[in-house]
Structure formats: structure tokens, C-alpha cells
Amino acid sequence: MNLFKYHHHFRPQIHGRLLLNYFVGEGPSISSRIGSKQCFRNHSEDQDMTEFMEYLDSLKNYEKLGVPTGAGTDSEDGFDLGRMKRLMERLGNPQSKFKAIHIAGTKGKGSTAAFLSNILRAEGYSVGCYTSPHIETIRERISLGRSGEMVSGKALNFLFKRNKELLDQSVKLENGRISHFEVLTAMAFSLFAQENVDVAVIEAGLGGARDATNIICSSRLAAAVITSIGEEHMAALGGSLESIAMAKAGIIKHGCPTILGGPFIPNIECILRDKALSMSSPVVSASDPGNRSSIKGVSLLNGRLCQCCDLIIQTDNEFIELFDVNLRMLGRHQLQNAATATCVILTLRNLGWRISEASIRSGLEKTFLVGRSHFLSAKEAGILGLPGTAILLDGAHTKDSAKALVDTIQMSFPDAQLALVVAMASDKDHYGFATEFLQGGKLESIVLSEANIGGSKSRTTSAALLRDCWIQASNEMGIPTETSLLRAIKIAAEILKQRIDGRRGLVVVTGSLHAVSMVLSSLHS
């Protein structure tokens, strides 16, 4: 394919060493070919839950529409948690039938949930895990049992049909206000109860206090975990770091241990600790001075890139030293998530749970999440029409996660020249995101593109608008735009190939997990 066949739209500009093109593509974009329903159809088991998916699609979906101002705060503007409680009562309160670990935080929730689930499964526990968002199929959000397999389409659809009458009653009684996330959460909790899991690891969707997952009573909560506090969903969570901290602290329950990831700035940690104190909740912090973790190096292990780490973690009555742990989750931020998960496990051990050091090591080393520091194989790059190209996918979409990704790339590939492909949702800090890459990355080229968010264009940021933000961040740049994400990747790869003169190059696709989803879905289409 001639990447520059639309030559009348191609306007190269050079500022210093960075090649900046303006390219507006024509023809069908990948986003028009791969929406949410098409992604589902790529998985044969998803065809078994067509009725359930059509029902969910009929409900209000804030992932597509965006979250209203103040919706995650514990105020009159917040989501009505009473509505979720009434729905669960009609379903028999399944959340009262299993122990739960509840995780909130700006970043690191999903990774910490994955580390915890794999450690507990390695010990032999039957674990339910509920996370969001998904990459290719909504079934990814719910995993069950000792194997960690995602729920089958048949099981999810059967449960839906069995409860449809109650769901219909709830929608009617709540004047149509029941949401997509509330129904999905209710079905996940019902599955966990039905399968009699030993413990459920539950990631909060937005904030904590008014999130639909925050219906677990203190007698069933094994631990509350708050991973980090950062500037995301600011409007929905009150407009400040302090209000965000208060919203996320809403998952802390009376008498139940609270584990803090961090590190947090002092006033934010004070808010979290004060909330725990008011709830008589003992606090364990992964960032306490006595806890130490380090990355010793990055290398290939069995064909997979791993970072070799040491973790030394001490809680009130538990202590563990883990040396030469090979984490497939890359970056200092992932090491912190691993340390947070280990603190949770030691807290559970102190409560009488049986969890061996071998299981902790095994669970940490087994954990890998699609779309987080995710390198495509040579075969996958070939399917995209880019044989021999190194391609990294990462769903970073905040200023903090952009910094973490830059640090990870510098650690793993210190000499690599980068071609960046970016697509983002409309409610993100585009300027802050751009600043981190412009300050820290060895950028040869930037190509801006678009991705459907939650299967819809309503929260998509246009490539042209993204370009304006990057120009503002750089003060002088003209930046290329390409609405087709796949074509944007090919443009970036071609520019990199022409400019690196045999040096190591890396194409990085980032800005949204939805962009990652679109790339991975194209491998199966």
C-alpha cells in the first residue's frame, strides 16, 4: 500500500528534528468498521448473548454519553445509590452472599484487581473479578472460578433471561433511570453468588461513594483499596483533588481494613486516613517507608518482556521479602500496583486467610493485562500490514499515565526513537497528556487520530482538535491528523522507517483503551 497516495492532502513540515505532517485521510475509517457490536461479533461466544446486549444497549450508557457534572460526588448531584440498592433487593441481594475486596482509585484499579485475583487463584480460591472497561468483549469484565476464565456468553444470557422480568420491573419503577452499568454490575454480582465464589475482587466504576458497586456492607467487605488519586473525571467528582479523594474514600466501611496504594500528597492522604479513622478502619499503606520495591532490569523471558523486581513489604503483623520477581506488567507504576496488591494479601493473611508466599509470587508473575504496555507480536504486526515494525499499545489517557508510559518506554527501550499515534476521549486532559510526551519522549513523529469511545462517536475527540492541543503544548508544531486509526499507524511506521537510519524504532499507540481495542479487534476481523 502506498501510504502517501493521497498526496494532495499531505503537507510535510519540519521543526527541528521532529517530522510533523498534516494528513487528512479519505475513505472508510477503522472506527466505521469496528464499532461495539462488530467487536462482539468477532467472538463466537458473544453471539450467545445477543438478547442481553440488545437490552443493555437500550439503557443509558455513560461510557458513551459521558458522566454528568457531580455524578460521582456524595451530594444531591450524585448518582442515586438507592436505585441500585432497590434493584439488588429485587434480585435477592446477591452481594450479601460472598466476601469482597473493593478497589477505587484514579489509576491502577484494574491492574491491582488482576494481581489480587491471580494471587488468590494461585492459592486455590474461587474468585469472581469485576472490572471495567473492556477491550474487545464485555465478557472480559467478569471472570469466575479458579481458572480466571471470562464468563461465557451463554451463562450471561441465561442469567439475564431468568431475571429479565425483575429487571423490567425495576426499569419501570425507577422511571427508566436504570443504567447500563447498574444492570451489568447486578448481573456480575448475581453470577458471583450463583457460582458461590470464595471472594469477589470488584473495581469501582467512577469515584466510589455513589458508584453502583458501592453496595457491599461492612460484614461482607474483606478490604477496601484506594490505589491513587489524580485529576481525572474532575467535573463528575467535584472539581478538585480533595473532592475526588472524598468520593473514592466512600468505599471505606466501618471496621474493615483500608489499604492505600499511593504515594499521595500529604493533604490527600490526610483526607483518606481521616475517613478511615471516622469509620474505625485500620489503615495499611503500600507507600510506608518500611516498604521497599525496586526494578533490577528488563529482559526477555520465554519470549516475553519482563521486569525483574524485588519487593519487601511489612504490615503490622506480616512481613515478606520477594526477590527476583519477574513481572510481565511493566513500569514503576505497575511495581507499585504489585506492592499494593501484596499489602492487601498480607492484610488478609493477618485476618486468617491462607495465602502462601509461593502463591503471591506466582500470582504476581502470571498477571498480564491486554492494552497495558502491550507489545504486538511479529505475526500481529504483519496482520496490520507492518511486518518488522515494533508496535506498543497502551491505554494511557491521563497526564499521570502518560508520564508512567514515557518512563516505562525509557526504561525498556532507552535508545528507541518513537512514532506516536494518539486518539483520545473528549473529556480528558489533552494538553497535559501531550506535555508529558513532548517533555520526555524521543519523538520522531506524532500522528493524531480518532477512536470510538464505548462504541459511540459522542465522546470522540476529533483529530483536528487534538492537533490544536498538541500545537498549544509545543508552541510551534504543525501536527498530522488521520481519522483512520489503522492508516495513522501505517503513516507513523513509514515516517519512522524513513528517519531512524537503522536505529531502533517503536510505534506507540496510546490515548485510550478504546483505541487499543480498535487495533486488537482489527487483528480478528
TrEMBL record:
Q: Give the CC-aspect GO terms.
A: cytoplasm
Keywords per UniProt: ATP-binding, Ligase, Magnesium, Metal-binding, Nucleotide-binding
Q: Which domain of life is it from?
A: Eukaryota
GO MF terms, alphabetically ordered:
ATP binding; dihydrofolate synthase activity; metal ion binding; tetrahydrofolylpolyglutamate synthase activity
What residues does the Mur ligase central domain cover?
103-344
Keyword RNA-binding in annotation:
no
Q: Is Nucleotide-binding included in the keywords of this UniProt record? A: yes
InterPro entries named in the record? Folylpolyglutamate_synth, Folylpolyglutamate_synth_CS, Mur-like_cat_sf, Mur_ligase_C_dom_sf, Mur_ligase_cen
Q: Which family does it belong to?
A: Belongs to the folylpolyglutamate synthase family.
Q: What is this protein called?
A: Dihydrofolate synthetase isoform X2
- UniProt source species: Cucurbita moschata (Winter crookneck squash)
